[in-house]
């Protein structure tokens, strides 16, 4: 994009192939202009060009003006260009210069569109014509000697006749030999005022302010107030000029004399009126008044043969009106005789040869880039650099200077400038301001003619201030001759249209067929021996293509119709308007703004390197430059539809090229910024992500084209097609791993994830197919990246967590996602995908596969059975709950029954229904469910059934296992051998549990039989006794409990004392009346359920008798003494003394005796106190009675 000022010289044959990366390009306007009527062009050159309303006017050095009319191209030919036919070849009238004086030919063609007039300056003579056919007007009116004509107000629309059509006169400036004239041209040419400024050579005007130049310096004029501000010399080596900017204001109101002359047959003689004052807008001053001086000189020096020989009046101007007073243009009469010699106007100062040492004369250049500024060029020599200076309407410098490598031959500005408010005349101009300078540069002894282009609206050092060099294109066989000609340059008053077919071709949408060059069947066959997952993918793609083909067909010829529509739309984008022309030799070109798409496309082609599409081409891509180009587009807002599409196209192409380069080389060699910039370009450019997927081997088969296919910019399509057909292998090597590197996978992950965020955007075409492809590709990328992660749950912000997030939020490619997850054996992720679609049945089916041993590569499904249980409580499908609840109960009865027993479950089952379901589907879980009902829900109706389950388990074990019976017998012996204090037998067997089902079932059986849940009255004692009758020796605690339920307390206490030796439980038995052999949990027994004290005393007497029969004497004495001491209150002293053996020492029962006697004494004293209290109460009552009687007094009864 940047011009290289030190670039190597390019041969003429190569210049035409140089990529056009500059802001302007040259496009042919008219080739091989017929400069000579006889075809012998000789040394004839084009001197000026003008264009208005499809009419082209060309001036030549042969003093001819050629008029061409534009013929529009064939509407049916999209690539057709307009042609031009020669309408007329005009020989403008001019005054013959002195002998041996060179004739410059047609010097200017000034078109005044508003009044439909043309002014042609030919060999220092101005003549007037009508538009567009160039018919002479104003009779024989001429202006001579004239060095230039112009100075039209640039703040007006120069081609404004198209809108106005009011024919308002146009004011122009004319440079005479010693004066400048202000002339108003309408239906005729009328003088306005004279400006005292000698030797002016060019002028540019804004309203009343004109910037003019003579051969030495520039000046600023106020043509209304007739004031001048001297500026600076054209050559900085000219010491005769002050060089001051914004100098002293001078008055330039001079008296008019000579300059515009007219000859009439009836003009009056004499020149007395020539001294009138021409200032102001006085209409009383005739045109002849300030033409007299010129006429006088002509009469003094003229001679026969002065005329050019063309059909012009003898006196050069001939008025149709014979009366001078009838027209303000009348002039004093002069002798019309051809023998009357007239002095020729002196040649322009540039042509005069000074007598002394030749001073440095440089051609002045004036342009006006804005309504408030003029651009002036100064320098030191024709081959030295030039400097452009900006001054405002007051003569002050406004901007930093710009530099030209060589002093220009011609200069134009284009564009209104960034930050400059538009005016009606520039409202349609481009915003960026450029200055184009024609010059000749010398390089390696070769002169190269071209245009130097740079911005004028940016300060030096800012982005975009670089210079560009543009040379003329080679045309035909005469290219070598043409390349050596100087280039003329001009800004026209009207704009022309240039059509760029390349823009339309690159920006138009074309159908991209990622699989068009490859056979799907061949691909499947080539991969069948390799990765089966890829083969499945290809089969899926093929199936989808067939599916789309079988759907309702699109209208016949729809694709051709779409192509026609896209072509018509794109043709609008290829049109660019320009008002700048350049010419050289016999060729004329439009200097037109290089469309953004072509300009940046050419830059990308340069960065690509070799023109041959191969792997090395993409590897050699200068990615740093591509990154810089993409960054230069960041934040740039499009101002037109074409620019909007061009920015998107360039971003797409640059991003895709960078991605191709990354894929073609070692991904680790690329910088992270390159990945991010490519990603940003593809996203901001809006490239269909399926195009990027098409160049990644493992992802291209995830593309869903859809019925209408993929439509992308033609330039991007060509790039992708070339890569797919030329770089990617035709067949996949089963031994080669086509998996991209981690860096590429990361890039694809970010790109595809960003695209997923665009779901729902209405601006995305074929949204369904796009996001099906994106989701499938992103899933595959994440699966590839997740392979390197160890099995286990996902960590925060990890790839696995992102994979979960993808499937949890749902994917558009559901069927494909299922296939991918199955092929990669990621069953847990698959189950999450099913959850996102609320497919509970598939979720449970997938979890069952994992629990039952199917391979799950991720290893995330920990505590699978527990998760199944939790999930079953959340769903509302009773059939699924029943099915998988039974399955879980079969595998894990404890968890399985929780599914049916959970209070928070969404599906409720009746207990009877659950029992029936479990009996049929999971018999092993029935016991667990019954335990839940009995122990947790207190359903007493299921006690007998649960006891029966326990008895079945225990008795079956005892029947089948001698070892089990021995274990029980051993526990009894071990417990009896323990010395007090010792735990209860229940605590003993719990602490010394055997980890077998029958042992735990027996503990549960004892818990139920013991009645700690208050269900003692709910089970059938007789039936249980019948079941355990064969095992009474092994099931001693069970027999004790059942004896207590039958009120066989003596037998129960005997077994507790002598069978088990559980003395604490025996005492507890007496206190609780045999309702439980275990200490009840606090608060579980009511006071009403306890036996009376008399009943307790009776049980204690039985226990006392059993203690006295303990075989071990020491144990007998200890337990009996302890019983009497702790519970002596339940015994009568006489009963105890009668049973205690006489051999026992009183000391053994001293505790009991002391407590008993103390109790007797206490009772006696309590009786005495009660008796005394009763006596006192009796006295109190008697005293109260006596008082009442006395109070009532005596009464007489009759």
UniProtKB/TrEMBL annotation:
PROSITE patterns: CNH (PS50219)
Localization per Swiss-Prot or TrEMBL: Cytoplasm
Basic and acidic residues biased stretches: 308-317
Low complexity composition bias: residue spans: 260-270, 320-333
GO CC, one annotated term: cytoplasm
Keyword terms: Cytoplasm, Protein transport, Transport
CNH domain segment(s): 43-457
Database matches in InterPro entries: CNH_dom, Vam6/VPS39/TRAP1
Positions of the UniProt region annotated as Disordered: 240-365
GO biological process assignments: autophagy; endosomal vesicle fusion; protein transport
UniProt name for this protein: CNH domain-containing protein
Protein's organism: Venustampulla echinocandica
């Amino acid at each position: 994009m940047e011009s290289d000022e030190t670039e190597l010289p390019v041969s003429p044959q190569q210049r035409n192939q140089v990529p056009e990366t500059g802001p302007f390009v040259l496009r042919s306007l008219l080739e091989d202009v017929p400069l000579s009527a006889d075809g012998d062009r000789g040394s004839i050159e084009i001197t000026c060009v003008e264009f208005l309303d499809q009419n082209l006017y060309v001036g030549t050095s042969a003093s001819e003006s050629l008029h061409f009319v534009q013929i529009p191209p064939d509407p049916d030919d999209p690539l057709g260009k307009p042609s031009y036919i020669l309408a007329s070849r005009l020989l403008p009238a001019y005054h013959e210069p002195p002998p041996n004086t060179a004739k410059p030919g047609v010097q200017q063609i000034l078109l005044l569109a508003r009044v439909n007039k043309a002014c042609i300056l030919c060999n220092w003579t101005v003549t007037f014509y009508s538009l567009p056919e160039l018919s002479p007007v104003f009779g024989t009116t001429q202006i001579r000697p004239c060095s230039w004509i112009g100075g039209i107000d640039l703040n007006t629309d120069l081609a404004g006749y198209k809108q106005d059509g009011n024919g308002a006169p146009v004011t122009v400036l004319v440079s005479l030999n010693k004066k400048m004239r202000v002339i108003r041209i309408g239906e005729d040419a009328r003088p306005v005022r004279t400006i005292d400024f000698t030797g002016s050579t060019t002028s540019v005007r804004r309203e009343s302010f004109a910037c003019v130049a003579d051969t030495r310096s520039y000046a600023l004029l106020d043509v209304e107030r007739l004031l001048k501000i001297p500026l600076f010399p054209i050559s900085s080596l000219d010491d005769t000029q002050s060089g001051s900017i914004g100098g002293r204001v001078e008055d330039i109101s001079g008296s008019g004399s000579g300059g515009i002359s007219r000859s009439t047959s009836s003009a009056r003689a004499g020149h007395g009126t020539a001294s009138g004052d021409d200032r102001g807008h006085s209409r009383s001053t005739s045109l002849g008044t300030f033409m007299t001086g010129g006429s006088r000189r002509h009469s003094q020096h003229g001679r026969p043969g002065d005329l050019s020989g063309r059909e012009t009046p003898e006196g050069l101007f001939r008025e149709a009106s014979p009366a001078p007073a009838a027209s303000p243009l009348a002039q004093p009469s002069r002798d019309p005789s051809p023998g009357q010699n007239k002095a020729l106007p002196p040649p322009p100062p540039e042509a005069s040869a000074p007598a002394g040492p030749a001073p440095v004369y440089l051609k002045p250049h004036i342009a006006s880039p804005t309504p408030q500024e003029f651009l002036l060029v100064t320098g030191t020599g024709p081959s030295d650099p030039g400097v452009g200076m900006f001054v405002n309407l007051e003569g002050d410098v406004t901007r930093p200077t710009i530099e030209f490598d060589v002093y220009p031959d011609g200069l134009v500005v284009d564009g209104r400038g960034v930050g400059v408010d538009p005016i009606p005349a520039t409202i349609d101009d481009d915003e960026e301001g450029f200055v184009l300078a024609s010059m000749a540069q010398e390089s390696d002894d070769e002169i190269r003619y071209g245009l130097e282009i740079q911005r004028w609206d940016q300060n030096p050092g800012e982005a975009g201030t670089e210079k560009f060099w543009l040379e003329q294109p080679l045309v035909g066989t005469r290219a070598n001759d043409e390349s050596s000609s100087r280039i003329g340059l001009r800004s026209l008053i009207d704009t022309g249209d240039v059509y760029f077919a390349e823009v339309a071709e690159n920006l138009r949408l074309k159908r991209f067929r990622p699989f068009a060059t490859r056979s799907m069947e061949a691909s499947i066959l080539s991969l069948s021996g390799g990765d089966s997952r890829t083969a499945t993918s290809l089969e899926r793609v093929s199936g989808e293509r067939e599916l789309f083909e079988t759907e309702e067909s699109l209208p016949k010829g729809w694709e051709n119709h779409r192509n026609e529509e896209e072509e018509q739309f794109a043709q609008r984008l290829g049109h660019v308007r320009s008002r700048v022309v350049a010419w050289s030799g016999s060729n004329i070109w439009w200097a037109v703004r290089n469309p953004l798409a072509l300009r940046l496309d050419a830059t990308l082609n340069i960065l690509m390197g070799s023109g041959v599409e191969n792997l090395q081409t993409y590897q050699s891509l200068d990615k740093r430059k591509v990154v810089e180009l993409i960054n230069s587009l960041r934040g740039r807002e499009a101002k037109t539809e074409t620019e909007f599409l061009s920015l998107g196209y360039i971003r797409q192409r640059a991003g895709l090229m960078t991605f191709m380069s990354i894929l073609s080389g070692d991904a680790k060699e690329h910088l992270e910024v390159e990945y991010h910039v490519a990603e940003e370009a593809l996203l901001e450019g809006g490239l269909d992500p399926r195009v990027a997927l098409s160049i990644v081997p493992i992802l291209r088969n995830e593309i869903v084209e859809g019925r209408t296919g993929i439509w992308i910019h033609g330039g991007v399509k060509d790039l992708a097609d070339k890569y797919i057909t030329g770089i990617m292998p035709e067949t996949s090597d089963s031994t080669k791993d086509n998996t991209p590197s981690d860096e590429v996978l990361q890039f694809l992950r970010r790109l595809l994830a960003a695209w997923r965020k665009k779901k729902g955007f209405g601006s995305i075409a074929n949204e369904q197919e796009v996001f099906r492809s994106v989701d499938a590709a992103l899933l595959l990328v994440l699966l590839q990246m997740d392979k390197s992660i160890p099995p286990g749950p996902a960590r925060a912000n990890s790839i696995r967590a992102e994979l979960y997030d993808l499937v949890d939020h749902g994917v558009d490619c559901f069927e494909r996602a299922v296939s991918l997850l199955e092929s990669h054996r990621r069953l847990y992720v698959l189950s999450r995908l099913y959850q996102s679609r609320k497919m509970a049945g598939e979720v449970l089916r997938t979890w069952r596969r994992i629990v039952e041993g199917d391979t799950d590569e991720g290893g995330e499904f920990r505590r699978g059975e527990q998760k199944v249980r939790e999930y079953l409580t959340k769903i509302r499908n009773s059939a699924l709950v029943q099915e998988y609840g039974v399955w879980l109960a079969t595998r894990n009865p404890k968890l399985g029954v929780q599914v049916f027993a959970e209070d928070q479950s969404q599906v409720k089952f009746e207990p009877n229904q659950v029992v029936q379901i479990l009996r049929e589907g999971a018999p092993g879980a029935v016991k667990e469910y019954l335990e839940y009902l009995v122990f947790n829900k207190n359903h007493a109706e299921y006690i007998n059934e649960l006891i029966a389950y326990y008895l079945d388990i225990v008795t079956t074990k005892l029947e089948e296992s001698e070892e089990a019976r021995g274990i029980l017998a051993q526990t009894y012996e071990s417990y009896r051998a323990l010395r007090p204090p010792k735990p209860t037998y229940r605590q003993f067997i719990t602490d010394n549990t055997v980890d077998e089902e029958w042992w735990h079932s027996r503990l549960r059986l004892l818990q139920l039989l013991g009645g700690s849940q208050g269900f003692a009255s709910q089970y059938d004692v007789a039936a249980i006794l019948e079941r355990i009758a064969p095992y009474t020796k092994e099931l001693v605690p069970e027999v004790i409990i059942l004896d207590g339920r039958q009120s066989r307390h003596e037998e129960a206490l005997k077994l507790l004392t002598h069978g088990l030796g559980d003395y604490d439980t025996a005492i507890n038995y007496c206190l609780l009346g045999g309702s439980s052999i275990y200490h009840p949990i606090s608060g579980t027994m009511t006071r009403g359920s306890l036996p009376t004290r008399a009943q307790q005393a009776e049980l204690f007497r039985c226990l006392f008798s059993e203690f006295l029969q303990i075989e071990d004497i020491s144990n007998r004495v200890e337990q009996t003494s302890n019983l009497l001491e702790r519970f002596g209150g339940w015994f009568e002293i006489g009963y105890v003394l009668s049973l205690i053996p006489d051999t026992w020492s009183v000391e053994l029962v001293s505790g009991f005796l002391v407590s008993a006697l103390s109790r007797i004494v206490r009772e006696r004293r309590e009786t005495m106190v009660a008796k005394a209290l009763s006596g006192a109460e009796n006295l109190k009552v008697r005293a109260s009675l006596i008082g009442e009687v006395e109070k009532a007094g005596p009464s007489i009864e009759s």
